[in-house]
């Protein structure tokens, strides 16, 4: 399978590294510094596993002419330019690991609906240095046809992930899975960005865990207006945060945080945290903009969501100047 990773930063490099190590024909499209390091010394993956793999890498996507599977891993704010750069490609399949509920719309507009697969990921990653990606959370990936049918090509993608040793599942509804991922990612991203704290410390704080549960429940309320019931996905545990008494849900999160700290998983941050630390515009619009509009249209009060959305947009206001 010819796999092209468009936007091989941290997450794209982790996926590309594992898939290349398993024998797939992988091309990474990345920034020049990352490409230079990979071409010189190979791609180093650390965290859950430690290995160096030789993999094709380029910063000029025009040199890429074929793709059985195109993986879109660029930041949501870079989507328009990235898709314009691959307008010459006609991939058999294309899947986006970007944030937001409308991430597939641009793919459909450019490639048509047939090649597009739904996808969601909770794999955590960060770049240690050019050519070295660290997997901070070795977790699940979900794929599905947009109409949620079974298909040979979907089975082939899942098989490629499994051969690479990457946890992967096909949910009953890929759309519901994407909502669930967003419902959990939003509080992780927003609270880590606003507090500058790592994931495990957010969960261990009673007050931040309170806000976390409130945000999850507000997203769930919005999802229900779209006839989406957030499913229980491996590694997320969303139902206990929605259905348990509020104080019990807080205790669930605090216990998760304690378990992460006890196991040494203290390096899990968020892209939003890193964006804010370097003064770069965040992806808050992709994460929460549509949710805010959906809530307003349905007349749903979302005080926690409204606060984090406006606060982070306020920071972004100055990052753009």
Describe the structure.
The protein is of the alpha/beta class. Helix 1 (about 10-20) links the parallel strand 1 and strand 2 (about 25-30). The radius of gyration is 19 Å and the shape is globular. The chain has 13 helices and twelve strands. About 50% of the residues lie in helices and about 15% in strands. Helix 6 packs parallel to helix 11. The strands form two sheets. It has an eight-stranded mixed sheet, with helices on both faces. The chain has helices at about 10-20, 30-40, 80-85, 105-110, 150-165, 175-195, 200-205, 205-225, 240-245, 245-260, 270-275, 285-300, 305-320, and strands spanning about 1-5, 25-30, 45, 50-55, 55-60, 70, 95, 115-120, 125-130, 130-135, 140-145, 170. It folds into two domains: about 1-170, Rossmann fold (3-Layer(aba) Sandwich); about 175-320, Orthogonal Bundle (N-(1-d-carboxylethyl)-l-norvaline Dehydrogenase, domain 2). The longest helix has 22 residues, at about 175-195.
The SS-based structural class is alpha/beta
What is the number of helical segments per DSSP (H or I, 4+ residues)? 13
CATH superfamily of the largest domain: NAD(P)-binding Rossmann-like Domain
Helix content: 40-55%
User: Overall 3D geometry?
Assistant: globular
- How many structural domains can be distinguished in the coordinates? 2
Q: Total strand count, please?
A: 12
CATH class of the largest domain: Alpha Beta
Strand content: 15-25%
Question: Span from first to last CA?
Answer: 43 Å
CATH architecture of the largest domain: 3-Layer(aba) Sandwich
* SSE string, helices as H and strands as E: EHEHEEEEHEHEEEEHEHHHHHHHH
Adjacency order of strands in the biggest sheet: 5-2-1-6-7-8-11-12
Low-confidence stretches: none
How would you sum up the major sheet? 8 strands, mixed
Assembly level: single chain
Q: What is the fold-level CATH name, i.e. the topology of the largest domain?
A: Rossmann fold
Gyration radius, rounded: 19 Å
Average per-residue pLDDT, rounded, comes to 96
